[in-house]
Design goal:
- The chain is mainly alpha-helical.
- The chain has 15 helices and 2 strands.
- It has helices at about 5, 10-20, 25-40, 45-60, 65-80, 85-100, 125-140, 140-155, 165-170, 190-200, 220-235, 240-255, 260-265, 270-280, 285-299; strands at about 170-175, 180-185.
- It has a two-stranded antiparallel ribbon.
- Strand 1 (about 170-175) and strand 2 (about 180-185) form a beta hairpin.
- The longest helix has 18 residues, at about 45-60.
- The protein starts with a helix and ends with a helix.
- About 25% of the residues are buried.
Length: about 300
């Protein structure tokens, strides 16, 4: 809507106050990144927020910042990205605008209805996991131990470096993430397998999972290795990525324990609503439940 259109809703004075313009400088971004560090945000969060702010700056193309421009940017995100991704970008941008004291430019998140089930094409089942693990045992033992570690502890791939030889001896892993520290117990069977793995590879201290150069593995290393397994394991590639192992742990644990608060603690979540995402049933299970209801009502 152009300025003339807005004037039909607001008086000239109100319109001027509504559309206050701000000039963005490189120093603003630099200061924002420093503020994230002082807030003790993780490196991954800092990179993500910086990326999202840079995307907004690219959209501006040198223009000043005002509420109307941010609303247009919100529309652009809605048309370009999935709603969850767009809302994540808007959250980062709002954080930036609040840091600058430009609350007048902040916008609301896009509205979305929470999904009731996990799409089947993205859901890694226990059967899928077993086929992947069996294939990895033949093709890539390191990957097999990594998959087993994530899927039996629920740790993030970014926390894999915390699984050390010293932790194996204690039987638990101390993980510090986003300013919080939690202990994750290692199942005895897993500890035995990892200790044997370390013995065979002469790993006597530090992270269990390392590259040929002795550095801890990162997300891209594991992701690429998992993708190579798909065809041989007969599992669709869209289901195969490290974070889905964490989802499978959470779904399986909740199915056994039914304690959402306890699961949130295990996963290191501050917000229990985040944990709910991990406990959604696959679409096929929802369909089976609906069929049971239909059968009961038809009796």
């Amino acid at each position: 809507m152009d300025e003339t259109g807005w004037s039909s809703f607001f008086g000239s004075g109100e319109m001027e106050e509504f559309n206050v313009k701000h000039q963005l400088t490189p120093e603003h971004v630099e200061g924002f990144v420093k503020s994230l560090y002082m807030e003790e945000k993780s490196q991954a969060t800092m990179r993500k927020y910086k990326h999202d702010v840079d995307l907004f700056i690219h959209f501006l193309d040198g223009a000043d910042v005002d509420k109307e421009t941010v609303i247009r940017y919100k529309d652009y995100l809605k048309q370009t990205y999935q709603i969850t991704s767009a809302n994540s970008m808007l959250a980062a941008l709002n954080h930036f605008l609040k840091y600058l004291g430009w609350e007048d430019c902040c916008v609301k998140a896009l509205k979305t209805q929470r999904a009731l089930f996990h799409p089947s094409e993205r859901f890694l089942s226990r059967g899928d996991y077993k086929r992947l693990l069996m294939t990895a045992e033949r093709e890539n033992v390191r990957l097999a131990r990594i998959m087993e570690t994530i899927c039996t502890t629920g740790i993030r791939i970014s926390e894999l470096h915390c699984v050390t030889v010293e932790a194996l001896k204690k039987g638990s892993v101390e993980i510090t993430n986003k300013g919080k520290t939690r202990s994750v117990f290692l199942a005895p069977g897993l500890s035995i397998k990892l200790a044997d793995y370390c013995r065979k590879r002469c790993i006597s201290k530090g992270p269990v999972f390392i590259t040929a150069g002795g550095k801890p593995l990162n997300r891209s290393n594991v992701w690429a290795d998992m993708k190579r397994l798909c065809d041989k394991a007969g599992v669709e590639a869209d289901k195969v990525f490290p974070h889905n192992l964490r989802h499978l742990f959470a779904y399986t644990y909740y199915d056994m324990d039914k304690d959402l608060v306890h699961l949130a603690d295990l996963l290191g979540h501050s917000n229990i609503e985040t944990t709910r995402v991990y406990t959604k049933e696959p679409a096929i299970a929802q369909c089976e439940n609906m069929e049971k209801i239909r059968a009961l009502l038809s009796e």
